[in-house]
Amino acid sequence: MELSEHIKTANVEDVTLRRPFHPTLRGTLCVTSHHLLFSDRKDEASWQLLILLKNIDAIEKRAVGSSGTITIKCKDLLVLQLEIPGMEECLNIARSIEALSSLESVTEMYPFFYRPSHLTLHGPWGLSSTEQYYKQTERLWDRWRVSKVNSDYSVCPSYPSAVIVPREVDDDKLIRSARFRQGGRFPVLSYCHHRNGMVIMRSSQPLTGANKKRCKEDELLLQAVIDGSELGYIIDLRSAQQAQQTRMTGGGFESKSCYSHWKRIHRHHERGKVVQESLIKLVEACSDPSHSVDRWLSKLENSKWLSHVHSALSTAGLVVECVERDGHSVLVHGSEGTDNTLLVSSLAQLILDPASRTVTGFLCLLEREWIQAGHPFQQRCAHSAYSHARLKQECPSFLLLLDCVWQVWRQFPLALEFSEALLLRLAQEVYASNYGTFLCNSEQERCAAGVKETTHCLFQSLLKPDIEEQYLNPLYEPTDLAIWPAVHPQSLQLWTGMFLRWTEYAQNMEEAREEVWSIVKEHREQAGPDRTNNTLSTHCESLTPIENLMDELTIL
Amino acid sequence: MEHIRTPKVEQVKLLDRFSNKSVTGTLHLTATHLIFVESNSTSAQEIWILHHHIASVEKLSLTTSGCPLLIQCRNFRVVHFVIPRERDCHDIYSSLLRLLRPVSYDELYAFSYNPKQNDQQREEGWQLIDLAAEFERMGVPCDQWQLTDVNREYKVCETYPRDLYVPITASKPIIVGSSKFRSKGRFPVLTYFYQEKKAAVCRCSQPLSGFSARCLEDEHMLQAISKANHNSRYIYVMDTRPKLNALANRAAGKGYENEDNYSNIRFQFVGIENIHVMRGSLQKLLEVVGTRSLSMTDYLVGLENSGWLRHIKAIMDAAIFLAKAVTVEGASVLVHCSDGWDRTAQVCALGSLLMDPYYRTIKGFMVLIEKDWISFGHKFADRCDQLNPDPKEVSPIFTQFLECVWQLAEQFPQAFEFSEWFLIQIHEHVHSCQFGNFLGNSQRQREDLQLKERTYSLWAHLLSEKQNYLNPVYSPSFAESHPVLEPSTQAYHFKFWRNMYHQYDRSMHPRQSILKHVLTLKESNRELEGTVQALKTKLQKFGVSTSPLKPKTPPRGRSLPPRPQSLILGAPLLSRKEVQQDEDEEVFGEEAREDAPASTGGERTVEGSSATENGYGELTGSFGSKNEPGVVTLEFGVARMTC
User: Are strands B265-269 and A329-333 parallel, antiparallel or unpaired?
Assistant: First the structure.
């Protein structure tokens, strides 16, 4: 069926649009295969609102006399109201939106039709690859290699075609290890610490089952990771009890007796439906303005969202502690190894690795650790917080990551090259996008759908100089050190920029941010061009009086 | 000094409140301070605790490592010492018990504090804030409001200031009559005049109405207030108490205005709880946030159960109601509670702050506190427990006011000239008794104590270090476009004020501060501009054209901006006596490496970001205490983790 067959009424005049904190507008509403378009009736300087149908999470219709009202709730949390004259038109529009916003087939989605004049489809797609990471990381060359054992995606359907594994483990062993891991996700390298060569590995759970099966190759693989005598840590993202229970269904954990050089630590993390419901509850709490303080706090608590943020950051901190402080390698896994595992390993990298705190570095990290590593974006982001549809595989793991990154940014506002705006943009793009980056569930599916050939890459376009500028943190000053976030509940906050982004509050914050920008700009202009190298040394003279004052104070 | 039996104890351990960290050092007890000096010479941190700041000292049961001493301070600092010998611990304990309970005003620090100023400077300091000038700024006296000398000798009301402003139609007999009908004689007087609409904000205490008593003079008084404003036919009477409390007061011969007896009033209960509820609420809050390894759930549930933010919102709601009535309806408002010195002060001050951008500047905020809190007799001595402890009188009323201002500043980042450090610093000194401003319960008492002759003014001190308290994104043009602030009171705007209640808990805070950074940039912008100007003039002197300015080559050398000395980055630089010196080794390490490639000072600011403090994990066994790069090299002891 052609997409256009879903459209019974394409155009309606005299529609009223209501948005929070904006004046009501009247204009023309237009439905196309992929968009909802509203345009102001005024001729000069006409104003348009273009919404990807995929961005629409839920719609509610209500009849008022002969006209109808449609409430549109978007996945980026915006809520709109449209008053449409004519009941039939209203129902037609609603029906079209319902059908077109929940397309199942990937190749019918908008990224396959998005053809802006300033982008071409030829040339390389994406920013990084396993091979590139290997090439850049000299520390790996000795003991690690790139394996193409998964080049036809037969060993592990959700892994990319190339992975980094210990040099001494051959492909046969990898295949055997893969059979012993859920979904074939055998332990692969995720990060090598530039300071001490310790690594973060990730995998899925071992399939030890009720009768404690073993896999020699899997044991050898992990043994090869820590190279003999030392110790490694396995961070299991389930409670010990949960891990025990999964043995009944064929899963399991690495037992002490079989993996003698690995010490296992269990950390409980919620997953799947629980986290999705958590998001739903949080957004519900944020969108009801009538709550008393008590009710708000109770709803915030009840949503458990901040608890998830708290556990993700604490576990990431624990991983970093093992790697950086303690000098040991770490294997991270939960059950499937496609959600919390990626969340923890990528957060740990952000904390550890200065390279992942630049715009490019961060996008590369996301590409390697989420897109190529096989986070099933299509399943996880099918619906957001408003949908009434029955939950299937939805889970806002990626949004949780962005929230955690925001918390890190709040505590280290100078350490990240990108700003909150980038996180907000990504939070929007992951649910509905013009680009192909977040399509499908794995590298294999993307290949089959021809994503690289027929869509544009979001990350590449974000890095275009004029666009990148919007996402830069004006205060950025790189640091080489690990940036350990504080994880006391008092140190974490609701991500207001995301969850209250459509309130008037956001506007005040925006103005303050602009003021900060202008101060920084003024400073750059005055301090001259050589400032980029020596951020503060250019005007140390001006600081002397302050330092003298300081000395005086100290003497006092 | 005679109370100090053991002035110095060595080998004392200081335990961190939220982690297993501890440091060893020497404890000194002086007449004014308790001082802890860390013995590790390279990173010697010092903690200075003013005796007046100590709220309680507790000797916990003996442990194998010594005798623990738990000290809780009014500025929310909590320190936990372990003293090796029980006898030393007892000596310190009993000395402190005596020292932190001064028996007379003369023992307060303000009377011995000497910032090396001469009498003239001191006098100038006290003259900085002039309330007569403030009323003039508002446009009072005017054709409807006049200064009355009825309280010149504190005869009508001894908790009011001498100078009071009343409607011109309120004659002396009316005033005196009204004052007899009001609790503690606190009759209705002007506190803020909204010139644009000629609407007045007045304050008083509850009427002694009981179940049916009336007072014609008091009714006349309200009528006079109403008549002084031609814009509105009615005035609002805001009783800031919950209705139930007001009803209960009737049984004691007090109560609230009966609308039938007063013409043209609109009576309104607001529902702010009393001092006892507020005290209990803060106590609950502090218990919750003082818990170690607090879970997110327990934190949020505890925050809710404490009711603290609910109370903050109640005060804010009342202030918004007041501001709306005055600015939108142009009506005058009379505010009272029971005695008219707690909730009334909160609501009047916060309401005025919403209406008048002047109060959102540094100087204006001082004026506001001086007017609505100090001069109108908020009982600082009792509420802050300065002397003669009566635990039932202590209550964080003023703290709540400061917090409301902070909550507003969070919503309107550009509206305030000052940053939160200004508020925190004021809070610090309300309890420090280092300056004379907040001593005593009323103006009369302050005069009796001759504070202006014998002590110094906090305001002069704060103004002298004004640059520390500036808000870098403050925009005067915002004040012009938003003369009246209209805050949203949606529940999610009320947040826990971490920097106030955890000021001294280092591990809680962000490691880098936007505020500090932007302030530094702004400061250097200003300085650079100055240099450019100076160079220009110089060049002109030499007859050189000034147009193509060459960038000045910077001299190499110390390239680091001033280090913040507080626990929280972005906190203002404080003098050594007031704040723990918290400079860790790595800071010096960085500085020593001057020839290192310009590292842009980033390391400086990630100081103290470390794993042990954050307590991510409880791994089993102990890690080898390896040297770690950068910040973490300094971790004390060995991280202990358990599986």
Answer: unpaired
pLDDT value, residue A1:
61
Beta carbons of B130 and B456 less than 8 angstroms apart? no
Residues in chain A: 556
My answer on whether B162 and B33 are in the same domain is no
Structure tokens at B129: 């804030």
Instruction: Give the residue from B60, B81, B101 where a domain finishes.
Output: B101
B95 and B145 inside one domain: no
What is the rounded end-to-end Cα distance, in angstroms, of chain A? 82
Kindly state whether residues B96 and B135 are assigned to the same domain: no
pLDDT surpassing 60 at residue A529: no
Strands A262-266 and A232-236: parallel
Residues B339 and B484 in one domain: yes
Domain range enclosing B248: 129-506
Q: How many domains would you assign to chain B?
A: 2
Tokens matching residue B420: 């939160």
Three-state SS for A58? strand
One-character DSSP codes across B572-623: PP--TTTS-B---HHHHHHHH-TTS---TTHHHHTTT--HHHHT----SSB-
* Level-2 CATH architecture, domain A3-103: Roll (2.30)
> Does residue B182 lie within any of the structural domains?
yes
Q: Is residue B609 part of a domain?
A: no
Closest residue in B to A293 (Cα–Cα): B491
Does B337 participate in catalysis according to the annotation? yes
Confidence band (pLDDT; 50, 70, 90) for A553? very low
DSSP B350-414: HHHHHH-GGGGSHHHHHHHIIIIIIITT--HHHHTT-SS--TTT---HHHHHHHHHHHHHHH-TT
Q: Does B497 appear as a known binding residue?
A: no
Q: Is the pLDDT of residue A291 over 50?
A: yes
- The more confident residue out of B639 and A477 is A477
My answer on whether B56 and B147 are in the same domain is: no
- Which DSSP string do the residues of B500-553 spell out, in sequence order? HHTTT-GGGS-SS-HHHHHHHHHHHHHHHHHHHHHHHHHHHHTT---SSPPPPP
Does B20 carry a binding-site annotation? no
Which listed residue (B73, B157, B337, B404) is catalytic? B337
B158 lies in the same domain as B231: yes
On whether both B37 and B160 belong to a single domain, the answer is no
Q: Which residue has the higher pLDDT, B235 or B628?
A: B235
* Chain A neighbors of B643, CB-CB under 8 A: 263, 265
Instruction: Determine whether the annotation assigns residue B338 to a binding site.
Output: yes
Same domain assignment for residues B158 and B280:
yes
Residue A437, SS3 per DSSP: coil
Contact list, A522 vs chain B (CB under 8 Å): 525
Q: Point out the domain boundary residue: B447, B473, B506.
A: B506
**Strand bridging mode B265-269 / B235-239:** parallel
CA distance B191 to B348: 8
What is the rounded radius of gyration, in angstroms, for the C-alpha atoms of chain A? 26
Q: Which residue among B304, B310, B507 sits closest to A486, beta carbon to beta carbon?
A: B507
Cis peptide preceding B141, ω within 30 of 0: yes
Residue corresponding to tokens 């650079």: B528
- What's the CATH code of the domain at B68? 2.30.29.30
